[in-house]
Amino acid sequence: LGFKIREQSSAYLELLVPTAKNDVTRAADVVEEIIRIYGPNRIPMPGAIRVPANLPVYFSSDRIRQSVAECFSAIGLSEAMNNSLTQDRYASIIGGEGAVKVLNPLSSELGIMRTSLVFGLVESLRFNINRKASSVGLFEFGKTYLKRGETNTIKETDRLGIVLAGSINPENWQSTTRESSFYSLKRVLSLLGEKLGLRLELKKVDSEISVFEQEFQVIRGNKVVGVCGPLDRSFLKGMDVDSMVYFAELNWSDLERMVGSVKTQFTEISKFPEVRRDLALLLDKGVAYIDLEKAAFQAERKLLKAVNVFDVYEGKNLPEGKKSYALSFILQDKETTLTDAIIEKVMAKLMETFKSQFGAELR
Predict the structure, then answer these.
(1) Of 123, 121, 201, whose CA–CA distance to 159 is shortest?
(2) From CA 70, how far away is CA 192, in angstroms rounded?
(3) Cα separation values, 157 from 23, 114, 177, 211, 249, Å
(4) Mean pLDDT score of the chain
(5) How far apart are CA 20 and CA 120, in angstroms?
(6) Minimal CB count within 10 Å: which of 104, 117, 258, 330?
(7) What percent of the chain has pLDDT over 70?
(8) CB-based burial of residue 119 (10 Å sphere; 0-12 exposed, 13-18 middle, 19+ buried)?
(9) pLDDT in tens, 221-274
(10) How far is CA 171 from CA 168, 251, 326, in A?
Protein backbone atom coordinates (compact mmCIF):
# COMPACT_ATOMS: atom_id res chain seq x y z
CA LEU A 1 0.00 0.00 0.00
CA GLY A 2 3.02 2.30 0.11
CA PHE A 3 3.03 2.97 3.87
CA LYS A 4 6.35 2.96 5.70
CA ILE A 5 6.55 1.71 9.27
CA ARG A 6 8.61 4.16 11.30
CA GLU A 7 8.07 2.49 14.66
CA GLN A 8 6.06 -0.43 15.98
CA SER A 9 5.22 -2.38 19.10
CA SER A 10 2.58 -4.86 20.21
CA ALA A 11 0.26 -1.91 20.92
CA TYR A 12 0.67 0.38 17.90
CA LEU A 13 2.20 1.18 14.55
CA GLU A 14 3.61 4.56 13.61
CA LEU A 15 3.23 4.96 9.86
CA LEU A 16 4.52 7.35 7.25
CA VAL A 17 1.61 8.04 4.84
CA PRO A 18 2.34 8.25 1.11
CA THR A 19 1.84 11.77 -0.24
CA ALA A 20 -0.67 10.43 -2.78
CA LYS A 21 -3.00 9.31 0.03
CA ASN A 22 -3.87 12.73 1.43
CA ASP A 23 -7.25 11.45 2.66
CA VAL A 24 -5.56 9.13 5.18
CA THR A 25 -5.42 11.15 8.41
CA ARG A 26 -6.34 8.66 11.15
CA ALA A 27 -6.09 5.03 12.17
CA ALA A 28 -9.53 4.18 10.74
CA ASP A 29 -8.39 5.38 7.30
CA VAL A 30 -5.43 2.99 7.41
CA VAL A 31 -7.74 0.11 8.33
CA GLU A 32 -10.00 1.05 5.41
CA GLU A 33 -7.03 0.93 3.01
CA ILE A 34 -6.02 -2.53 4.23
CA ILE A 35 -9.54 -3.99 4.07
CA ARG A 36 -10.04 -2.57 0.57
CA ILE A 37 -7.15 -4.76 -0.69
CA TYR A 38 -7.40 -7.69 1.72
CA GLY A 39 -11.17 -8.02 1.11
CA PRO A 40 -14.05 -7.37 3.55
CA ASN A 41 -15.35 -10.92 2.93
CA ARG A 42 -12.24 -12.29 4.67
CA ILE A 43 -12.95 -10.40 7.92
CA PRO A 44 -14.72 -12.67 10.44
CA MET A 45 -18.02 -11.17 11.67
CA PRO A 46 -19.43 -11.77 15.17
CA GLY A 47 -22.72 -13.57 15.57
CA ALA A 48 -24.39 -10.44 17.04
CA ILE A 49 -23.56 -6.75 17.06
CA ARG A 50 -24.61 -4.72 20.10
CA VAL A 51 -24.86 -0.95 20.02
CA PRO A 52 -26.34 1.40 22.64
CA ALA A 53 -29.83 2.69 21.79
CA ASN A 54 -29.13 6.15 23.15
CA LEU A 55 -27.11 8.72 21.25
CA PRO A 56 -24.91 11.33 22.88
CA VAL A 57 -26.94 14.47 23.48
CA TYR A 58 -25.22 17.82 23.39
CA PHE A 59 -26.49 21.36 23.28
CA SER A 60 -25.75 23.31 20.12
CA SER A 61 -27.02 26.81 19.42
CA ASP A 62 -26.90 26.20 15.67
CA ARG A 63 -28.81 22.93 15.94
CA ILE A 64 -31.58 24.52 18.02
CA ARG A 65 -31.90 27.48 15.65
CA GLN A 66 -31.96 25.21 12.59
CA SER A 67 -34.60 23.00 14.20
CA VAL A 68 -36.87 26.00 14.88
CA ALA A 69 -36.32 27.34 11.35
CA GLU A 70 -37.33 23.98 9.85
CA CYS A 71 -40.41 23.86 12.08
CA PHE A 72 -41.53 27.33 10.96
CA SER A 73 -40.85 26.51 7.30
CA ALA A 74 -43.02 23.41 7.64
CA ILE A 75 -46.05 25.52 8.64
CA GLY A 76 -45.59 27.96 5.76
CA LEU A 77 -43.41 30.73 7.19
CA SER A 78 -40.43 32.08 5.27
CA GLU A 79 -37.16 33.19 6.82
CA ALA A 80 -36.18 36.84 6.38
CA MET A 81 -32.73 38.38 6.71
CA ASN A 82 -32.92 42.16 7.06
CA ASN A 83 -30.25 44.84 7.36
CA SER A 84 -29.14 45.70 10.89
CA LEU A 85 -29.03 49.36 9.81
CA THR A 86 -32.38 51.11 9.64
CA GLN A 87 -34.06 54.51 9.40
CA ASP A 88 -33.40 57.35 11.85
CA ARG A 89 -37.10 57.98 12.43
CA TYR A 90 -37.58 54.53 13.93
CA ALA A 91 -35.54 55.58 16.98
CA SER A 92 -38.41 57.77 18.18
CA ILE A 93 -40.73 54.73 18.18
CA ILE A 94 -38.53 52.19 20.00
CA GLY A 95 -35.19 52.93 21.59
CA GLY A 96 -35.19 56.71 21.80
CA GLU A 97 -31.96 57.97 23.34
CA GLY A 98 -30.71 54.40 23.58
CA ALA A 99 -30.51 53.99 19.81
CA VAL A 100 -27.01 53.44 18.41
CA LYS A 101 -26.33 56.05 15.72
CA VAL A 102 -23.93 55.47 12.85
CA LEU A 103 -21.14 58.10 12.84
CA ASN A 104 -20.94 58.41 9.07
CA PRO A 105 -24.23 57.06 7.62
CA LEU A 106 -24.67 56.56 3.89
CA SER A 107 -28.22 57.91 4.16
CA SER A 108 -31.01 58.64 6.67
CA GLU A 109 -32.45 55.22 5.87
CA LEU A 110 -29.27 53.60 7.23
CA GLY A 111 -28.66 55.96 10.11
CA ILE A 112 -29.10 53.80 13.23
CA MET A 113 -28.65 50.20 14.35
CA ARG A 114 -32.03 48.52 14.70
CA THR A 115 -33.60 48.57 18.16
CA SER A 116 -36.24 45.98 17.22
CA LEU A 117 -36.86 43.43 14.46
CA VAL A 118 -40.34 44.83 13.84
CA PHE A 119 -39.25 47.51 11.38
CA GLY A 120 -37.36 45.25 8.99
CA LEU A 121 -40.02 42.53 9.12
CA VAL A 122 -42.88 44.96 8.42
CA GLU A 123 -40.90 46.45 5.52
CA SER A 124 -40.37 42.94 4.11
CA LEU A 125 -44.06 42.18 4.63
CA ARG A 126 -45.04 45.41 2.82
CA PHE A 127 -42.75 44.51 -0.09
CA ASN A 128 -44.57 41.19 -0.51
CA ILE A 129 -48.08 42.62 -0.06
CA ASN A 130 -47.38 45.29 -2.69
CA ARG A 131 -46.59 42.45 -5.09
CA LYS A 132 -49.98 40.82 -4.58
CA ALA A 133 -48.99 38.25 -1.97
CA SER A 134 -52.27 37.35 -0.25
CA SER A 135 -50.61 35.58 2.66
CA VAL A 136 -47.34 36.58 4.30
CA GLY A 137 -45.69 34.86 7.25
CA LEU A 138 -42.08 35.69 8.09
CA PHE A 139 -39.62 34.95 10.86
CA GLU A 140 -36.13 36.30 11.48
CA PHE A 141 -33.21 35.58 13.77
CA GLY A 142 -31.22 38.75 14.32
CA LYS A 143 -29.54 41.09 16.77
CA THR A 144 -30.87 44.33 18.19
CA TYR A 145 -28.66 47.10 19.57
CA LEU A 146 -29.13 49.53 22.49
CA LYS A 147 -26.83 51.77 24.51
CA ARG A 148 -26.74 51.06 28.24
CA GLY A 149 -26.83 53.82 30.86
CA GLU A 150 -24.22 56.51 31.24
CA THR A 151 -21.39 54.27 30.09
CA ASN A 152 -22.86 54.16 26.59
CA THR A 153 -21.73 50.57 26.19
CA ILE A 154 -23.66 48.83 23.44
CA LYS A 155 -25.76 45.79 24.29
CA GLU A 156 -26.36 43.29 21.50
CA THR A 157 -29.28 40.90 22.01
CA ASP A 158 -30.15 37.88 19.87
CA ARG A 159 -33.85 37.96 19.05
CA LEU A 160 -36.47 36.01 17.13
CA GLY A 161 -39.15 37.98 15.29
CA ILE A 162 -42.37 36.62 13.77
CA VAL A 163 -44.87 38.54 11.63
CA LEU A 164 -48.16 37.37 10.07
CA ALA A 165 -50.63 39.06 7.71
CA GLY A 166 -53.24 38.06 5.14
CA SER A 167 -54.98 34.71 4.82
CA ILE A 168 -53.82 31.66 6.75
CA ASN A 169 -55.08 29.04 4.30
CA PRO A 170 -55.13 28.96 0.49
CA GLU A 171 -58.41 29.44 -1.34
CA ASN A 172 -60.04 26.20 -2.47
CA TRP A 173 -63.45 24.66 -3.11
CA GLN A 174 -63.58 22.75 0.20
CA SER A 175 -63.15 25.62 2.65
CA THR A 176 -63.37 29.38 2.79
CA THR A 177 -60.27 31.54 3.22
CA ARG A 178 -59.68 32.76 6.77
CA GLU A 179 -57.68 35.83 7.69
CA SER A 180 -54.77 35.74 10.12
CA SER A 181 -55.68 36.63 13.69
CA PHE A 182 -54.03 36.87 17.06
CA TYR A 183 -54.79 33.17 17.52
CA SER A 184 -52.76 32.38 14.41
CA LEU A 185 -49.78 34.04 16.08
CA LYS A 186 -50.52 32.26 19.34
CA ARG A 187 -50.48 28.94 17.48
CA VAL A 188 -47.02 29.69 16.09
CA LEU A 189 -45.75 30.54 19.58
CA SER A 190 -47.28 27.31 20.93
CA LEU A 191 -45.44 25.31 18.26
CA LEU A 192 -42.23 27.14 19.16
CA GLY A 193 -42.70 26.20 22.82
CA GLU A 194 -43.34 22.56 21.93
CA LYS A 195 -40.26 22.45 19.70
CA LEU A 196 -38.05 23.88 22.44
CA GLY A 197 -39.65 21.86 25.23
CA LEU A 198 -40.73 25.06 27.00
CA ARG A 199 -44.19 26.04 28.23
CA LEU A 200 -44.80 29.58 26.95
CA GLU A 201 -47.74 31.54 28.38
CA LEU A 202 -49.26 34.86 27.32
CA LYS A 203 -50.32 37.67 29.65
CA LYS A 204 -52.08 40.82 28.52
CA VAL A 205 -50.49 44.05 29.76
CA ASP A 206 -50.90 47.77 29.22
CA SER A 207 -48.98 48.57 26.06
CA GLU A 208 -45.53 49.96 26.84
CA ILE A 209 -44.34 49.74 23.22
CA SER A 210 -46.13 52.12 20.87
CA VAL A 211 -46.14 49.68 17.94
CA PHE A 212 -48.76 47.41 19.59
CA GLU A 213 -52.52 47.90 19.58
CA GLN A 214 -52.76 45.30 22.34
CA GLU A 215 -49.64 43.99 23.99
CA PHE A 216 -49.10 40.54 25.48
CA GLN A 217 -46.04 39.38 27.36
CA VAL A 218 -44.63 35.96 26.51
CA ILE A 219 -43.73 34.30 29.80
CA ARG A 220 -41.84 31.16 30.68
CA GLY A 221 -42.03 30.43 34.40
CA ASN A 222 -41.64 33.81 36.07
CA LYS A 223 -39.50 35.36 33.34
CA VAL A 224 -40.71 37.56 30.48
CA VAL A 225 -39.03 36.31 27.30
CA GLY A 226 -40.84 38.41 24.72
CA VAL A 227 -43.84 40.45 23.62
CA CYS A 228 -46.52 39.93 20.98
CA GLY A 229 -49.84 41.19 19.71
CA PRO A 230 -51.60 43.00 16.86
CA LEU A 231 -49.67 46.01 15.60
CA ASP A 232 -51.11 49.49 16.03
CA ARG A 233 -53.01 50.76 13.00
CA SER A 234 -51.41 54.22 13.12
CA PHE A 235 -47.96 52.61 13.21
CA LEU A 236 -48.87 50.42 10.22
CA LYS A 237 -50.23 53.45 8.37
CA GLY A 238 -46.87 55.17 8.90
CA MET A 239 -45.23 52.06 7.44
CA ASP A 240 -47.66 52.19 4.46
CA VAL A 241 -49.38 48.91 5.35
CA ASP A 242 -53.20 48.69 5.23
CA SER A 243 -53.88 45.15 6.45
CA MET A 244 -53.90 43.85 10.02
CA VAL A 245 -50.49 42.57 11.10
CA TYR A 246 -49.57 40.36 14.07
CA PHE A 247 -46.07 40.45 15.46
CA ALA A 248 -44.00 38.72 18.14
CA GLU A 249 -40.45 39.40 19.28
CA LEU A 250 -38.68 37.06 21.68
CA ASN A 251 -35.35 37.19 23.46
CA TRP A 252 -33.63 34.30 21.71
CA SER A 253 -30.64 34.40 24.07
CA ASP A 254 -32.93 33.73 27.06
CA LEU A 255 -34.76 30.93 25.23
CA GLU A 256 -31.48 29.23 24.30
CA ARG A 257 -30.32 29.26 27.92
CA MET A 258 -33.63 27.76 29.00
CA VAL A 259 -33.45 25.02 26.38
CA GLY A 260 -29.95 24.12 27.60
CA SER A 261 -31.31 23.53 31.10
CA VAL A 262 -34.33 21.44 30.09
CA LYS A 263 -34.08 17.70 30.70
CA THR A 264 -36.15 15.36 28.59
CA GLN A 265 -38.30 12.98 30.60
CA PHE A 266 -39.80 9.77 29.30
CA THR A 267 -42.97 8.31 30.80
CA GLU A 268 -44.28 4.83 30.22
CA ILE A 269 -47.55 4.72 28.29
CA SER A 270 -50.42 3.83 30.59
CA LYS A 271 -52.10 0.46 30.15
CA PHE A 272 -55.42 1.93 31.27
CA PRO A 273 -57.84 3.89 29.04
CA GLU A 274 -58.45 7.62 29.00
CA VAL A 275 -61.88 9.05 29.76
CA ARG A 276 -63.32 12.25 28.31
CA ARG A 277 -65.93 14.42 29.96
CA ASP A 278 -67.32 17.76 28.74
CA LEU A 279 -68.68 20.82 30.54
CA ALA A 280 -70.59 23.76 29.03
CA LEU A 281 -69.98 26.76 31.29
CA LEU A 282 -71.67 30.16 31.43
CA LEU A 283 -69.03 32.74 32.39
CA ASP A 284 -68.37 36.45 32.53
CA LYS A 285 -66.80 37.78 29.31
CA GLY A 286 -63.67 38.80 31.19
CA VAL A 287 -62.77 35.22 32.16
CA ALA A 288 -59.87 33.88 30.07
CA TYR A 289 -59.48 30.22 29.08
CA ILE A 290 -55.91 30.08 30.44
CA ASP A 291 -57.24 30.90 33.93
CA LEU A 292 -59.75 28.07 33.70
CA GLU A 293 -57.03 25.67 32.59
CA LYS A 294 -54.74 26.64 35.49
CA ALA A 295 -57.55 26.31 38.01
CA ALA A 296 -58.47 22.85 36.67
CA PHE A 297 -54.94 21.48 37.04
CA GLN A 298 -54.60 23.00 40.51
CA ALA A 299 -57.85 21.33 41.58
CA GLU A 300 -56.99 17.89 40.15
CA ARG A 301 -53.28 17.12 39.82
CA LYS A 302 -53.33 13.33 39.66
CA LEU A 303 -56.02 12.24 37.17
CA LEU A 304 -56.44 15.29 34.90
CA LYS A 305 -54.23 14.92 31.81
CA ALA A 306 -55.53 17.56 29.38
CA VAL A 307 -58.03 20.41 29.06
CA ASN A 308 -59.29 21.87 25.80
CA VAL A 309 -61.86 24.47 24.75
CA PHE A 310 -63.76 23.31 21.65
CA ASP A 311 -66.53 25.89 21.44
CA VAL A 312 -67.03 29.54 22.41
CA TYR A 313 -70.36 31.32 22.03
CA GLU A 314 -71.40 34.91 22.66
CA GLY A 315 -74.63 36.63 21.66
CA LYS A 316 -78.25 35.61 21.36
CA ASN A 317 -79.97 33.74 24.23
CA LEU A 318 -77.14 34.58 26.67
CA PRO A 319 -77.36 37.17 29.48
CA GLU A 320 -75.63 40.51 28.97
CA GLY A 321 -71.88 40.36 29.66
CA LYS A 322 -71.79 36.56 29.52
CA LYS A 323 -70.22 33.98 27.22
CA SER A 324 -70.33 30.20 26.93
CA TYR A 325 -67.27 27.93 26.97
CA ALA A 326 -67.48 24.24 26.05
CA LEU A 327 -64.53 22.47 27.69
CA SER A 328 -63.30 18.90 27.39
CA PHE A 329 -61.34 17.11 30.12
CA ILE A 330 -59.18 14.02 29.66
CA LEU A 331 -58.87 11.85 32.78
CA GLN A 332 -56.59 8.86 33.26
CA ASP A 333 -55.19 6.78 36.10
CA LYS A 334 -51.87 5.00 35.50
CA GLU A 335 -52.63 2.28 38.02
CA THR A 336 -56.25 1.28 37.44
CA THR A 337 -59.34 1.74 35.28
CA LEU A 338 -61.41 4.74 36.32
CA THR A 339 -64.88 4.02 37.69
CA ASP A 340 -67.96 6.19 37.19
CA ALA A 341 -67.92 7.14 40.86
CA ILE A 342 -64.33 8.46 40.68
CA ILE A 343 -65.01 10.31 37.42
CA GLU A 344 -68.12 12.01 38.82
CA LYS A 345 -66.21 12.99 41.94
CA VAL A 346 -63.45 14.64 39.86
CA MET A 347 -65.94 16.48 37.64
CA ALA A 348 -67.85 17.73 40.68
CA LYS A 349 -64.58 19.04 42.15
CA LEU A 350 -63.75 20.85 38.91
CA MET A 351 -67.24 22.37 38.67
CA GLU A 352 -67.04 23.56 42.25
CA THR A 353 -63.65 25.16 41.50
CA PHE A 354 -65.03 27.01 38.47
CA LYS A 355 -68.07 28.13 40.43
CA SER A 356 -66.14 29.44 43.43
CA GLN A 357 -63.32 31.12 41.49
CA PHE A 358 -65.14 32.42 38.40
CA GLY A 359 -68.83 32.34 39.22
CA ALA A 360 -69.39 29.74 36.49
CA GLU A 361 -72.78 28.11 35.88
CA LEU A 362 -73.64 24.95 33.96
CA ARG A 363 -75.56 25.55 30.74
Answers:
(1) 121
(2) 11
(3) 42, 11, 37, 19, 12
(4) 89
(5) 52
(6) 104
(7) 97
(8) buried
(9) 889 999 999 999 999 998 999 989 999 999 999 999 898 777 777 778 889 999
(10) 10, 35, 29
How distant is the alpha carbon of residue 98 from its chain centre? 28
As a whole number of Å, the end-to-end CA separation of the chain is 85
Q: Which residue has the higher pLDDT, 72 or 91?
A: 72
Q: How far apart are CA 68 and CA 188, in angstroms?
A: 11
Q: Is 202 helix (H, G, I), strand (E, B) or coil?
A: strand
Per-residue pLDDT, 58: 63
Task: Please choose, from the candidates 213, 95, 212, 228, the residue with its C-alpha nearest in 3D space to the C-alpha of residue 162.
Answer: 228
AA letter at 218? V
Residue 150 near residue 135, CB atoms below 8 Å: no
> Which amino acid, one-letter code, is at 98?
G
Closest by alpha carbon to 303, among 348, 263, 265? 348
| Distance set, CA 152 to CA 100, 101, 110 (Å) | 9, 12, 20
> Which burial class, exposed, middle or buried, applies to 174 when counting CB atoms under 10 A from its CB (0-12, 13-18, 19+)?
exposed
Beta-carbon contacts of 280 under 8 Å, excluding residues fewer than 6 positions away, are 311, 324, 325, 326, 327, 362, 363
d(CA 190, CA 177): 22
Largest CA-CA distance found in the chain, in angstroms, rounded: 94
Question: Would you say 71 and 266 are in contact if contact means Cβ atoms under 8 Å apart?
Answer: no
- Residue range 180-199, pLDDT digits in tens: 999 999 999 999 999 998 98
What does residue 326 show for φ and ψ, rounded to 5 degrees? -105, 115
Q: Are 350 and 358 in contact (CB under 8 A)?
A: no
Residue 112, pLDDT above cutoff 90? no
- pTM of the prediction? 0.70
